[in-house]
Every structure is written in structure tokens, then in C-alpha cells.
Known about the structure:
The protein is mainly α. The chain is 18% helix and 0% strand.
Amino acid sequence: xKCPNCNAEIRDNAKFCTECREKIAKINTKxxxxxxxxxxxxxx
Length: 44
């Protein structure tokens, strides 16, 4: 996984980046089928 702040490589379960010390937000790791994602983004 990469830090969203400095792009350093960090562990998947890290709470803080080891390089820039930025707090890592919990990322939704639940994988949804692509069909469900496209339906959510195309609500127009």
C-alpha cells in the first residue's frame, strides 16, 4: 500500500506512514463488482 500523502510504501494495516508520519485513514477494502460501482457513480 502507498501513503496518500508522500507516496511511500507502507504496510497494509499501518495507522501512520513511517516516512511522513501522516495518519492513514481507513480505506474500504471491501471489493464491489464493477457493475455496482458504475451504478453508484452514474446517478444522473
